[in-house]
Amino acid sequence: MSAPAIIFDLDGTLVDTAPDLLDSLNHCLGTIGMEPVAHEDINRIVGFGSRVMIERAFALRQRHLAPDQLDALQALFLEHYTDNVPGRSKLFPGAIEAVQRFASAGYIPAICTNKLEGMALSLLEALGVAGHFKTICGGDTFPMRKPDPGHLLRTIAMAGADPERAVMVGDSRTDIDTAKAAGIPVIAVDFGYTDHHVSTFEPSRIISGFDELTVAVAENLIAETAS
Length: 227
Description:
The protein is of the alpha/beta class. The protein has helices spanning about 20-30, 50-60, 65-85, 95-105, 115-125, 150-160, 175-180, 215-225; strands at about 5-10, 15, 90, 110, 135, 160-170, 185-190, 205. The strands form two sheets. A six-stranded parallel sheet has the order 5-4-1-6-7-8.
């Protein structure tokens, strides 16, 4: 029998990356003289990767964005972000302790993020925690990405874990919709990046800190889903 799994989103769930995402976004926007995006707007534009961040920034300003311009701006975004990893990004309090808690209980920890795989790995390595995860799958690891359930299911498969004994931890509608579509219980943190409170999207459970993410909670949710 395969081991159970706990699959984490990255930005806004395990790591507070908002300051660096915003810095890189505003860097690329600044090259075309566009007004910077304020920190209070970050929750309205994150969750689907750098291209969508740029698209949403243009939408906020009601500006037209041509495909070739998007490509050029994304290249600038990725260059700036990569050159400054880990920047001001920090693990949320108790995040790695929670990962270790589940690993000690026999769970396989893995990452399923829409951030590009190489960028996710670089960030986790820079923070000194990449080794805690069996698999780190990004938005370019497979032909699909969240909210397609295949992204999550393939992450679980790559980790060598049992999808019927898996739980997802995320911070946004994207994560919640992905897990629901995959038939996997999802625990939502309420301190991440979303323009609506996570309760709106009806996750299996909501936590306000990683001290609330216990093995017993995961086991109960897995059992409830199976029944």
